Amino acid sequence: MELELIPVKTRILTPKDDIVDTIEKYAKDMIGPDDVVSVAESVVAITQGRLVTPEELKPGFLAKLLCRFVPQKGSLSSAYGMQSAMAVEGEWRMTFAMLMGLLAKFVGRNGVFYELAGEQAALIDDVTGTMPPFDKCIVYGPHKPNDVAEAIKQRLGCYGAAVADVNDLKRAAVLGVSKGMQPEKLARILIDNPFGNASQRTPIVIIKNYAKVAAQATA
């Protein structure tokens, strides 16, 4: 028996939606007790109302300065993205993290900035970083993703659930899981990004037969 990844199509989801209700509506009949339900973190965040428009932000001097030290593909490379991170993590924390990160590069160590800047600094999606019509918004990371995953598991009766941050550059991180699940293992399964957050509108992916395949592997 092999794993099968099944993307589930939905309509465009908004802050008026509940992600657990949505999964039940669109995928209930497809989910079995051996399956794991995964959902894209940006969609979870949107349904939680965790987004802001650039017009709501007023980038200050520090945001305009620090964003220049972030590679252009990064969500914090714009003054608005940096200001949004400062709004949740604090200006001085972000400034300290950037200073330490720059100093660390001199000794050949990368990633220090994101280690110190706080969880949201790494999770924020700047404009164009998520699906329409929210591609004109800055979207924060989801709130309590472990609780979201557990709620999905309890409602749908599946083997497990996960909230995942995956992109087309083969970068996968599982931000939240239901009890007993292994984030690193799920990240490897989702590495090829089966989610479709743009015109595909498939932010839910069912990992079929997960429990059975796991049992075979340990037999």
Key traits:
60s Ribosomal Protein L30, Chain: A; 10 helices; globular; 2 domains; 219 residues; 5-stranded mixed β-sheet; two-stranded antiparallel sheet; alpha+beta
| Main beta-sheet annotation | 5 strands, mixed
Tally the beta strands.
7
CATH superfamily of the largest domain: CofE-like
The CATH topology annotation of the largest domain reads as 60s Ribosomal Protein L30, Chain: A
Helical amount among residues, as a percent range? 25-40%
- Derived from helix and strand composition plus strand pairing, the structural class reads alpha+beta
Question: Radius of gyration from the CA trace?
Answer: 18 Å
Major sheet: arrangement of strands: 1-7-2-5-6
Q: What's the helix-strand series? A: EHEHEHHHHHEHEEHEH
Query: What is the averaged pLDDT score?
Result: 91
CATH architecture of the largest domain: 2-Layer Sandwich
Low-confidence stretches: none
**CATH top-level class of the largest domain:** Alpha Beta
How many domains make up the 3D coordinates? 2
Tally of alpha and pi helices: 10
- What is the strand content? 5-15%
Intertermini distance: 13 Å
Shape: globular
